[in-house]
Amino acid sequence: MGTGHARLSPSNARWPKCPGSVREEANYIDVPGEAAIDGTGSHLLLEMCLDNSVLPIQYEGQIIGTNHEDNPNGWLIHKDRIDRVQICLDYVKRRYDELKALYPNAELTIEAESRSDPGGMFGRDDWSGTCDITITVMDGGKCVFIEAIDYKDGRGWVNAAENTQLTAYLGGKARNHIASGPDLVRPFRVERVKAGRMTIVQPKTMPPIRYENIETRVLVERLEDLSKAARATDDPNAPLIPGKHCQWCKHNPKRGGSCTAQGEQSLKVVETMSNQVTTTGDQSLFETIQASMGNLTSLESNKLTELADAKDGMMAIFKQIDDEIKRRIELGETISGYAMLPGRSSKAWNGTDKDVEKFLKGRKIKKDKIYPAKLLSPAQALKLDLTDRQKKDLQDKLISVVAGKDTLQKVARQEVDENKAELMFGDVETPTTEEPSFF
């Protein structure tokens, strides 16, 4: 597996919400982080197990993926990684058995790391990706069911319901069966495939398996919406729209980028709040804001939330202002009221450790005073080179969590709409060491 992605990669959840992010992120070098590289090792192990019809335990202690572009030294396979991949394989085996019982005369195909091209359904060549696992059921020469499975190795909880990545994968896989003509485009014959399933397997979360059953008609409706979002990215002036999707965007100021969308949105919030305050005569912006602040007790709770949400954007604006002032000063420009001055001072030894030790011993200072021993903190211990199982043992036996002082913090808002498509949770059986029957 390589790190190269299509311009509108299904795994990028930002472009359907922020069309301008595609243009801006293209200006940054894509360097995979440590967590992403580690996840690639698990994906590679999963692919090897499926392709070679073997269990992951057979790779224990071996190094796989040497010379991989993301990790040339490869990945040494430990038991914790084996257990995570086995959870996914157990689910695939269970699904094979369930579907075989449901369609006893059908032919079931399991694909690993196969191409999915939803963009081609709409005449695009920049919207495609690689689906981790696909299960296709063919009965009487016709496709009756498709399941797209995406394996996640991280801890960040991923929702399977209305997941744009899985929608694209499943749509691309259904394309051969529902699209028309030699180019496999519109009109789409949704009646040809009754239904499908979009599944997330994420062993580090609970529950580790979650999925959404979806009718082909609903799938195509979502694909149509995504195709409109794709067209929006073609506009050279596509807008930047801030939201939770900004977290991992390379253009995010918190990640070294220079996006101003969140700050601009925050200014609009403050402006709206200010306009709601009755004032007389001409006032400056700060006078208007001050008038708003003076009436906080009369604001409704939802308005207070809007103002509080604007904080990060406002702080991002001031950070960019500070960065620009620093840049100009470093170029030799004089900025009235500002200068680059030394920060808080600290003390450092002029000589070597041996010089300091010799000096202090000569003054009859004991060695334990010169080299005071201090046990590392729990947080430092968890950063040591330990396996996930060893870290869990350490946490269970020797670490407790002490609640900090109550502080005001942002919390996730309730976003679950019970009237939306049904989100189903699957149980996971204990990992088995038997040879999976579907290989």
Describe it:
By secondary structure, this protein is of the alpha+beta class. Among the domains are: 20-237 and 420-425, Alpha-Beta Complex (Lambda Exonuclease, Chain A); 260-330, no CATH class. 37% of the residues lie in helices and 12% in strands. It is built from twelve helices and eight strands. It has helices spanning 20-25, 34-52, 79-102, 164-178, 216-232, 261-275, 285-293, 301-330, 353-362, 367-370, 378-381, 388-398; strands at residues 63-64, 75-76, 107-116, 129-139, 142-151, 195-201, 209-215, 424-425. It has a six-stranded mixed beta sheet. The protein has a two-stranded antiparallel ribbon with strand order 1-2. Strand 5, helix 4 (164-178) and strand 6 (195-201) form a beta-alpha-beta unit. Helix 2 packs across helix 3 (79-102), helix 4 (164-178) crosses helix 5 and helix 6 (261-275) crosses helix 7 (285-293). The longest helix is centred in the last third of the chain and has 30 residues, at 301-330. The protein is globular. The model is unreliable at 414-439 (pLDDT under 50).
